[in-house]
Amino acid sequence: MSRRLHTTDLGCIACDALTDIGAGKEGWLVDNPDLLISLDTHSVALVNRSLILILHWSSSNNGGPDPDKNRVVKIRPDLSPIESEYISAVEWLVFDDEVSRVLAVGTSRGYLLIYSLHGKLIHKQIVNTGKILKLRVRGTKRDLTEDASSEEVCVVMPGVIARFEGSDIQNMLQRWFQGTDSQFWNDSFDKMDSDDSGFSFTRLPYQLWNVSKYGPCSDAAITGVMPPPLMETQSSQHYYCAVTIGDDAVISAFRLSEDKSRSLVGAILSKVVPATFSTIASLSKLIWRSEQKPTKKPEAKAQPFARASPLTCLKDHPRKGEKLTLSPNGTLAAITDSLGRILLLDTQALVVVRLWKGYRDANCLFVEMLVNKDTAASRSAYHGYSKSDYCLCLAIHAPRKGIVEVWQMRTGPRLLTIPCPRGSKILQPTYRFNSAMTTSSSYIPLEVFFLNGDSGQISNLNGTLN
Predict the structure, then answer these.
(1) What is the pLDDT of residues 315-344, one digit of tens each?
(2) Which residues pair with 366 in a beta bridge?
(3) How far apart are CA 236 and CA 218, in angstroms?
(4) What region, left, alpha or beta, does residue 117 occupy, with left being phi > 0 and alpha being psi -120 to 50 degrees?
(5) Do residues 55 and 46 make contact, with C-beta atoms less than 8 angstroms apart?
(6) CA dihedral of 326, 327, 332, 337, whole degrees rounded to 10
(7) 313 or 178, which is more confident?
(8) What are the tens digits of pLDDT across the range 152-192?
(9) What's the pLDDT tens digit per position in 50-73?
(10) CA nearest neighbour of 303 among 166, 126, 132
């Protein structure tokens, strides 16, 4: 009865297409390590190595499944069978206009793929050689507390972090969606993938850092912009703080610089080698006068690393960092480890400010709740709820206990405990790109959703504590 009071049923994704990714077996949603899920408003993407399933659902009075069979989209990416390539990460990319809503996919060979809602390949690009572990979409919107907005897509790989500007992705998508001849864009992207000399306008710029000083990471996140080192000359370039977790180091932090010139020798080589190679290639063409295209596809070249300076490291063998969850503004991070503990990290001071024990296999998501309902209601009778009416909390799903707990941040009490059926997952819609200033009347709080694997039912946690 408690769950009925604190959650609201929204819809159901149960359909025959789910059998293609293993549905029908007990625990199929939580026991399969290859099954990836990404939630968006009225859409959910489920991935099982080589198959992408996009299900569109809508709220209904009875919470039943949507009868429209055309709302199910299947995508089978063109993966390399020789190297056993598979899909290793997935995330929605959502912009202001609902039209620009696409699905980003990472592969085990380090490729970033972007698909439309109808399954068309919009973009394909190599990030770095290696498996993409996670795609993180994050942004800080400009409001009364933030002078500027920062939006990004972070690609996490073992010991490597890449950062794409949200505006660059949005501009590329706008050109693709607004183009009068979409086939031209598709041909351009396909040609770029088959010809390494390719087209510069189809390659998204990004920044790349090596953060493997303390061993390969299992998860990581860029928490925000940080000041430059004290003894370093001030410049217009940005510095970012990155937090990584892994087997060798539970927590480690790095200062990421935009500067790629790691040394004088590296700077000289980066200028001389490409020019020398270009000259040799030109002379070769003049000598051989060959117009034939190479029969073998040239290997994609990875981007050079920028500077990553270590800041701190926490090693506590045999403890291993497993999962990392970032708060909306990036100032807090919830980290689960192999000993069943949850660490709350202050990403600015780089200190652990809170610790929970006895939560093995836990999943954490930050959520915003209306704690003082009466006070907030009196202030928002005409203007709606504002960000100040909500309080930041941490939702902890303990599957072994079969419950979800909600704790007030940073050191507040446990506000709520509700049962969670076996075989369920807690999910959160992806960040919505929006550079416009957020007004108090249009503020949308951070929510947590439940997906029941046995019934396919989707529900959300009510944002008000009774």
Answers:
(1) 988 899 999 999 999 999 999 999 999 999
(2) 394
(3) 32
(4) alpha
(5) yes
(6) -40
(7) 313
(8) 999 999 999 999 999 999 989 988 887 734 454 455 444 44
(9) 999 999 876 554 444 444 444 789
(10) 126
Q: Which residue, 116, 324, 184, 96, is CA-closest to 105?
A: 116
CA distances in angstroms from 135 to 79, 138, 363, listed in the order given: 19, 10, 17
Both tokens of residue 258? 């935009």
- Residue 91 predicted with pLDDT over 70: yes
HEC-encoded secondary structure of the chain = CHHHHHEEEEEECCCHHHHHHCCCCCCHHHHCCCEEEEEECCEEEEEECCEEEEEECCCCCCCCECCCHHHEEEECCCCCCCCCCCEEEEEEEECCCCCCEEEEEEECCCEEEEECCCCCEEEEEECCCCCCCEEEEEEECCCCCCCCCEEEEEEEECCEEEEEEHHHHHHHHHHHHHCCCHHHHHHHHHHHHHCCCCCHHHCCCCEEEECCCCCCEEEEEEEEECCCCCCCCCCCCCEEEEEEEECCCCEEEEEEECCCCCCHHHHHHHHHHHHHHHHHHHHHHHHHCCCCCCCCCCCCCCCCCECEEEEEEECCCCCCEEEEEECCCCCEEEEEECCCCEEEEECCCCEEEEEECCCCCCEEEEEEEECCHHHHHHHCCCCCCCHHHCEEEEEEEECCCCEEEEEECCCCCEEEEEECCCCEEEECCCCECCCCCCCHHHCCCCCCEEEECCCCEEEEECCECC
Residue 311's alpha-carbon distances to 54, 208, 243, 353, in angstroms, are: 41, 18, 10, 18
155: β partners? 135, 162
> Rounded distance, CA 100 to CA 176, Å?
10
Only one residue has tokens 């020789």, namely 82
Amino acid at 161: I
Rg (CA), the chain: 24
pTM: 0.83
Query: Phi and psi (nearest 5°) for 267?
Result: -65, -40
What does the alpha-carbon distance between residue 123 and residue 167 come to, in Å, rounded to a whole number?
A: 15
Of 366, 363, 371, the closest CA to residue 451 belongs to: 363
Place of tokens 């927590």: 251
CA distances from 257 to 161, 166, 220, 253 (A): 12, 18, 16, 13
> What is the rounded distance in angstroms from the CA atom of residue 441 to the CA atom of residue 423?
37
